[in-house]
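Q: I have three molecules that I believe assemble together. Could you output structure tokens for the complex as a whole instead of separate predictions?
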Amino acid sequence: MPSRRLSPQEGEWIDRGRAFDFSFEGETTSAFAGDTITSAVLAGGRTVLGRSFKYHRPRGVLSAANHDVNVLLDGADAINVRADVAAPEPGARYRVVNTRGGVDRDRARFIGALAPLLPVGFYYKAFHRPRALFPWWERLIRQLSGLGEITERHPALRGTTRRASCDVLVIGMGAAGLAAARELATHDVSVIVADENARAGGALGYALDADHSARIFLAEATGLLVGAPNVRLMPGACAVGCYADRVVPLVTAEGLVVVTARTIIVATGAIEQPAVFHNNDLPGVMLASAAERLVRRYAVAPCERAVVLAGNADAYAAALNLHTAGLGIAAIVDLDDPESRGDLVAEVAARGIRILPRSQVSAAAGGRVLRAVTVAPRGTPGGAGGEVIPCDGLLMSVGWAPASHLLAQAGATLGYDDALGHARPAALPPGVFAAGRVNGRYALDAKLADGLAAATDALRCLGRPVGETRRPPPATARSHPWPIVDHPARKNFIDFDEDIQVEDLRVAVREGFDSIELLKRWTTNGMGPSQGKHSNPNAARVLADTLGLPPGAVGATTVRPLYHPVPMGVLGGRRLRPHAASALNGAHDAAGAVWTEVGAWRRPKFYQRREPGSPVVTEYRAVRERVGIIDVSTLGKFEIRGPDAGRLLDLCYTSAVSKTRTGMTRYLLMVDHRGTITDDGIGARLAYDRYYVTAGTSHAVGSYRTLTQVAALYRLDVDVIDLTRHLAGINVAGPHAFELLAPLVDFDLAALPFLGACEGRVAGIEARFMRVGFVGEYGVEVHLPHADAPALWRRLLADGARRGILAFGVDTQRLLRLEKGHLIVGQDTDGVMHPFETPLAGLVNFSKENFVGRNACEYLRGRAQRAIVGFEAELPDEATVIEECHLVIDNGRIAGRVTSVGHSPALGRTIGLAVLEGYPAPPAGISIRVGGARLVGARVVPTCFYDPDNARQRVGVPA
Amino acid sequence: MAIRLLKYALDRNHAEPRYFNTPAEPRDSYDVVIIGGGGHGLACAYYLAQNHGIRRVAVFEKGYLGGGNTGRNTTIVRSNYLTPEGAKFYQRSVELFESLGEELDLNLFYSTRGHYTLAHSESTLRTMRWRAEVNKHFGIDSELVGPEEVKRACPQIDLSCGGQHPVCGALFHAPGSIVRHDAVAWGYARRASQLGVEIFQQTAVTGIEIEGGRVVGVQTSRGRIATGKVVSAVAGATPTVLKMVGLESPVDIVPLQACVSEPMKPWLDPIIVSGSLHVYVSQTARGELVMGASVDPAELHSTRSSLDFVTSLADQMLDLFPFLAGVKIVRQWAGMADMTPDFAPVMGKTGIPGFYLDAGWGTWGFKATPVCGETMAFTVAHDTNHRLIEPFGMTRFEELRMLGEKGAASVGH
Amino acid sequence: MKQFDCPHIGRRPASEFVCAGGMIGVMQMQDPAAARRALYFGDATARVKREWWLHRPSRLWFRFERDTATDQVLSIELAHPEDADAIA
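A: Yes, here they are, computed for all three components at once.
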């Protein structure tokens, strides 16, 4: 294929000194640094660059600006690469997405022949009867749908998210954006200027610029801005959304830069719109600005002999521009009278370019690529014939749509401007300004003046002294109101992503989808990867026309982020997962801990052991018969101190906390305002106005919030200090625990009563001590600075070795406490249970002034719907196991569930706790449905299975 | 079906009759006025006409048909709920969904994919077992499975989740499905229209008239309508409609966001939900990944999108599927979720004779569309709560009684 | 991201906060029946609401007046004025 590369263009983006190769559809393709994949492939002479999603029609370049996805590729480890704006990697191999056998020989192109059978929405009208066949159809549809292919081997690359803030964010480095930035640079404001393109300039770099005024301005403005210390230039940074309070994420090569701007100037320009005629999707049919970009930026001539379809004055500028670069212009087909187009018409005519006034392109033809167009007087019905003009390029210049997405997301309203031919911002929210083509200003001097005006408005908004704003008037006649030709053979595409034709829309309207949103959802117009950039305006025109309404009367669909799609690895940023770790985790690992997750923490379930049998039972026996230690560092820990300390705790917990004597502890229960149990813990009164309170591992955050919030509500004189991550906790329990600890502490351990608390030293370390009996043996819980915990842990294990000490984990602790019938909040209680449905009702003290949930508790007392009971069972065989959450069944109804269960070594049988519903009084027995839908009988017994008199608490302690 | 497609090919004018009739003006009176032209309201209208022969029904929708949460949800249908009330209710919905395409003669793309709710901790796994047991009791196909089974069904998943909170099991619900949400609204609307129901879009109800303690009419942007029965099925607008009749409710309005990726070839068959990571994902027939997470953290009556949502969703999703880093998110949107304290709806008769409420649908409403329509239609026709919705009366909150769904809600999808 | 201009801690991003709503107010309601009702029922329409927000890093509680229709925050004050002394 002959190369389409042109001689060097002034200001071209390619570096001809750096050449390399890559592969496109198996063909080696040359490229220069600065090329896009599309420009390089076109330069190599190829015209068919893709296949349409539904009908697999051949497609070529359309916008060369990422406004369409005609050229969508998969690389070895990249999916859905947008070739129009992606630079080729040297040596990379790219394939066109969604073809069967390659872009040239796509076997799926026969689907196009079935097109009449597959109108828009056909799949709603078919495939659902008979029902049994639908899965087969769906499998087929799924195979045919979808674009690129993803595999697990695609790299997990994540970007870095940075944040920035500024006084003014200017989005767009075209004429208007640069003019605004240039003005702002001279003021005392911080400015960020961003543009999605690799270089500044926008159309300044490729549009007709006979007197070089554009290029001169571009050089001068960028030079000034580069040197301005208060201006940060960010080319290659695409603003993909405008969120509340003017937060704008910019997508750069490294990742997101999230900008918080006090004011924003949106100078994002306009998106050139396609014309609609039979075969308007043939490779070779493209937007005029696409041809200009290709020629001026990449020195690629996309065609040799073009026909220009003119719906505005820009067409003539484009024709001159391209003719100067060496393209042949066979004719300009003007939809209206050329007289209305301005001065350039004469120059075009002077070059001998033929102009056909008041004419239309009814059809394009050529098989796989464009070879000719059929031109007829405007208004001729499509299919009625006309003059055939051979060409290999049809350049459409019929109109624009403002790239106003960010404005809409910011809350701007847009109104249709009849004179202009498209929408324009009507009302802008505070701090948001528009300039340039997005604001309806097209001529270069108008854009510059508009940019200056926006800068002035922004400065005024920031409180800077400025003169009055002078806005140039908006342009006129930039978008043709009806660049559409109906055609009996259809194939006149409105939406290139979704292969939607004019007739599809008309039929949908007749079927009742006659509002802009319903039309979109039924036809999927605008729902493809380009999100309607080329299809929304024309679809609105067809809708209005079908309903007999003026254009602009049908509204527009909701604009949502993201302006261009953004990879998840860029949005997600670097992975950061804070987690909490006990200071003893190293020791646990060394001892062979098997872990479980509890909230942000991990805790040992048990330790792998050499002894035969269950490690849990081994640890259990150590605690019941000798001594065991467990790491309880994950518990919430709060110090409450001040004159109102007792009052605060009385207000937050149901218990009468302030009645605790100094040197003693109390079991605390917390409920929420609705009376639901949320947490439990131990409250120790260390001094008259100083308490130390523990909370459940997963509930600590919530309980701390309650404490601080109630303190603020009542304006209490109290400090609430969260020591959760400052202190470690070690619980020492067993009949030999006293013997082990007594020599290590600096006080008389025998004087510490059951449920007592004190401060002192253990092994020389300052700590708090609470003698509580969670597991049912003599036990002391030691809370100490986490840095000191490993030393104490080692000391206890060493000193306890001759007593047969073992470390035990949460699984063992669960079993031990189960024998005592101690509840675990969140396991034995759920999201709705209140204290009066548990054995803890006695902890609710109504004689206090008030407490969180008091009102609800008063009502719920006496209205329990559930009850917690203990049960014990003999299981028929080893295979039968009762598990937590097995249901209690009563005569075929769900009557409750098991919340805790285990085999009790002390009793030699299975014991557990269950929540029962619907029993006026606890029954004598219950049936539990276990695996295999079998029922197992169990006796209902009091919840404390082991040592109900707490005699074990005195074992090992001198009298 | 082939005949229907051939008709299109051969007939140039193949438009079918209008799907939704739009009479020029509403009548002066209707037997039933339904406020809300989303899935619930339209389904109620359909079943009123179809099951009860009540056809003098008007549906008033202030926007476009199905434009509320019906058009914004993430289209998951399942019945693996925790409570007996919920399980029975949603199971009926699944039954209706399975034959709904045939009943409405519209392909809803109801695709049974299997639904996995991943557990990342022992306590969550325990709750999954609870759900499985309750489901099995009612004959709902749910079971607890181990991580190997998750990997078998979804080989691409990273069970380690990046090293923290690895997947330790899941609740597998084979009937879990996805469906084309808009089509559900269109299907009900079309059949209801065919049966004589009148649907008025871009028409707001601005007031409800009460006389002698009962409903006598509504004020709309197109005039006053006399009626003795009004159904409110407006999700995020529930507080506003309730104010018209002087009722309060336990409903709070919070945005719920979702997003969609670009289309890709099929790779994900099942629906994956993670309680710990608060994200869930399914792949549509078009090849897009539809993804969502939990509700926004504060009340807001707006469907605005937030950057925090899409960045944190992407971050969490990559824990499950790291290779998706290069896959692009195309669009994000939001709906307004009418949340209740116990993650169960408020339905049925209210203290005002003639005013019926269908609300409190939070993040769990779309899957209930058919059963809501069926039960509300019964309730309105007989002026008696259908037995399936008896547990959902608002009075439970007056008695400080919450249903137990929250024990298991995780992300609530 | 959205930012809040708070007394004493200045302008902080919304992501540092958690909203606790207004439920705490029931603790100080005089009429028990009304307080019980307020646990579940209220006027949930879009309007200006008083809410408690916690700034997690500093653990300070603030009272916001926020318009739940537009998400505009009309006023922010420290919930417990003496907290200001604690961090002064």
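A: One point stands out. Chain B is about 30% helix and 25% strand.
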